[in-house]
Amino acid sequence: MTQNRVIVIGAGNAALCAAISAHEQGAIVTVIEKAAYEERGGNTFFTGGGFRYPYDGLPDIQQLIPDLSVEEIKKIDVGTYPRKSMSDDLLRVSEGLADEQMVVTLVENAFDTVNWMRDYASVRWVLMYGRQAYEVDGILKFWGGMITEAVGGGEGLSDSLFSAAERLGINIEYGSKMTKLLTHSTGAISGIELKNTAGFKTMECESVVLAAGGFQANVEMRTRYLGAGWEFAKVRGSRHNTGEVIRSALDIGAQPYGHWSSAHAVAWDLNAPPTGNRRIGDLYQKHSYPLGVIVNTNGERFVDEGADMRNYTYAKYGREILKQPYGTAFQLFDQQTVHRLRDEYRIKEVSKAEADSIEELATDLGINPHQLKLTIDEFNTACQGGDYDPAVRDNVSTHGISPPKSNWALPLNQPPYVGFAVTCGITFTFGGLRSIANTGQVLDTENIPIPGLYAAGELLGGLFYHNYAGGTGLMAGSVFGRIAGASAAASSVD
Description:
Elements lengths: L4 E5 L3 H12 L3 E5 L17 E2 L6 H7 L5 H5 L1 E2 L5 H11 L6 H22 L3 E3 L5 E4 L2 E4 L5 E3 L2 H15 L3 E3 L3 E7 L5 E8 L2 E6 L2 E4 L8 H8 L7 E2 L8 H8 L4 E2 L5 E7 L23 E3 L18 H9 L6 E5 L18 E4 L2 H8 L3 H14 L34 E13 L2 E2 L7 E3 L5 E7 L16 H19 L4
Parallel strand pairs: 1-2, 1-13, 2-9, 4-7, 13-23, 14-20
Antiparallel strand pairs: 3-8, 5-8, 6-7, 10-11, 11-12, 15-21, 16-20, 17-18, 18-20, 19-20, 22-23
Helix pairs in contact: 1-6, 1-12, 4-5, 5-12, 10-11
């Protein structure tokens, strides 16, 4: 029997899961990576490596992480995260717009896929002690539906997947940019055109899996689709995700799908570089804002910092920061909560000030001192008190101010005060291609499958609208990458 030749475009998590899956099904696989070897890995490298999947309790976590010790188990509470909860979360944060078949496929395959990654790609997992747990009464309570990460974070995940691909003999061509999808007269995929340092060349194949990310690093596309001001956003990850792979699919009639005018965007250090720094990785992010207050340069609050658990608000609050004067905001904390801040607040590359008074802190950070003092006094007066618990939505809220703080509302009154300057960091764009959820095959504008063309990862549209639940991106990349790779390997050979 003739083996299928499968070309995978991209070399992040989704792409490598697709490549490994296609190889598992017997295909001859080539990965085309735009970046040089030294910059390989796409956006995956820059992530925290967290995955969201349903689980029924500690036995499921022990299945995934079998080396948890008895002492560790005594000190943790992982809770449960049923399939319905995950489905409900994905539909809730997308305001009911997420493609239901994509949600069903993702939820049904998520837990099996992280186990497949462990068994087939040697990805190791660990509980997210530092980012997704708070100590309450001596027990580390995990929260938010995303409690495990790949060992080594995004870099560790990337290294594990590359090691698996190389061990399996999958060919990876670095420094190669796909410029065109080639088709037979029937419309079926026949190969690709790519450009490398030697110039242009063509490669023939039976199937192509597109998994090269969104268009967040393309200033022109970002501004065209997301709107005015987005040219000023900093790019959290790879500088190579510039959207030409999406365009190449649209050029042969693929259907655009999803929320093209929205993106995953977070609070990012004000002085971070324009695109991702591979040494710092994701540590420019600043995600402990539910423990404090956020203000703009005028000293005014503009979001409900406690609207929900961090996992369900962080990906949309970057957009709100971009709307503020100078695209800048400040996260403020006092000594009641500063000890709970995530590790990213303690790196030396941080835009930070500390002071014994609110006015002094404002002056040091470049905030209007008079207005900030008024804002904090108003906020403190509005705090109602209650049973504070950062591991749950505790309803410790404000009263009589707008915007409110719906949970974790402690008055800022225990100096020294600490402030961090942030801006908008864009992670990935939500618009992309439409595919059949359970096969990964790309649809054309008449909803007809394009023979031999599959897609996975951030260039798929339809799952994310307006907002995002933490850990869903990597999980979706793995699930839909695995599906697309297997389908591509099984597609008929002429």
